[in-house]
Amino acid sequence: MSRLPEPYKIKMIEPIRLISREERKQKLIEAGYNPFLLKSEDVYIDLLTDSGTGAMSDRQWSGLMLGDESYAGSRSFYYLKETVQQLTDYQYVIPTHQGRGSEQVLFSQLIKQGQAVLGNMHFDTTKAHIELNGGTPVNLVISQAYDTSNQHPFKGNFDTNKLESYIQQHGEENIAFINVTITCNSAGGQPVSMENIKAVSKIANKYHIPVIFDAARFAENAYFIKMREDGYKDKDIRTIVREMFAYGDGLTMSGKKDGLVNIGGLIVIKEDEKLFQQCTSTIVPLEGFPTYGGLTGRDMQALAVGLNEVVEIDYLHHRISQVQLLGKLLVNYDIPIQEPIGGHAVFVDAKKLLPHIEPSEFPAHALACELYIESGIRGVEIGSLLFGRDNKSGKDGLSKLELLRLTIPRRVYTDNHIQYVAESLGKLARKRSQITGVNFTYEPTILRHFTARFKPI
Ligand code: F0G
Predict the structure, then answer these.
(1) CATH number for the domain running over 21-50+313-456
(2) Which atom in ligand 1 lies closest to the alpha carbon of residue 254?
(3) Ligand 1 touching residue 252 (CB < 6 A)
(4) Position 1 confidence tier, pLDDT thresholds 50, 70, 90
(5) What is the pLDDT of residue 396?
(6) Which residues are annotated as catalytic?
(7) Quick one: fold of 59-309?
């Protein structure tokens, strides 16, 4: 594929500013060596997340003006509902304020105390909502996902042998549902193939277990299927999206990723009317009346437009190729990254880059701190810090991978910014032996990575 520049021109800008190296050092000390605690105005290029950080189009902004703010029966809700029905071929649509709101409502209806939820790799909030509902999250991704240099084209796939033997061992009545995360964020934004989705659905049908998609990055997953899987090259993205969802019974979606909006989410149910009715009564006290679910009319309007734009092939070509660009530039600088490069982020393998730092001294977090001092770029650790301590032994450094996630917001940065990110990491890599690990000065007991404070060793 030849690579074209950004498929848009810029109509409005938001200034960003690189403060001096001395200031960056000072700001990081004030933030307790935790980039999460930096003020965004002190960050030059923010690659913390692709969630809710994208830029809306002129069509979306004009949609905001058309939003119908009626409490019940909003016109914007019906527009969103029809858009989602066309996209998914599912019948029932419930808006929520964001992905975790969808999880909270839907999971409370699907999980009975003690049941397991089998996933390729559950995202943090998904895992938390399974546990809050008395369930056990189980990850059954293929083992290749844990090897950052393995070139498997669909590293988000389920190990279907493990999936079936888990069901046989524990009994189908002890499984609440199968959760297919597309693309698989926790495995590095890695896609799931149509063949694998089909195989998972076959096993699910055999044992009468529902299949629910975590569809936050559904369009990126469909794009990888088109590019990498036999038989899909000539199919358009909408056709692939509908085929993926045909193998499931429902989905939760964070609209903050492939919905191309700053806030919003969805629960969509294929045909189970009873489940839909249960969700509509649960959602009232948690999110709001079922025709707004925690969103304003204008939010729903913008989400509907975003869902139509995200499946446009020119958008996806550029989106994915920009992430690939960053990955390829880093490889040119001999920086070890997770390969193949995923859909929304490049993951730097800090275990390989900084082998002199023990996992318990958080190499990827140390790298995030140094990258900020070097260049004002903010990335995030996905490794032992995020993983937390073992509940029983209290031991640290347990994650299989120590990654620095450089997450690319949608339609926000140009290829020039990407170039700067790669050059900055390249410069830092030349000084890698000077980078030291970090120790806690404050360690919260839950979700420690958000608020912990550190000092360099
Ligand atoms: N599922 C996946 C796969 C996600 O990546 C996220 C969020 C959620 C569910 C929850 O959605 O944030 O709208 O409540 N991921 C963000 C990230 C936060 O940075 O990867 P939400």
Answers:
(1) 3.90.1150.10
(2) 13
(3) no
(4) low
(5) 84
(6) 71, 123-124, 214, 216, 257, 449
(7) Aspartate Aminotransferase; domain 2 (3.40.640)
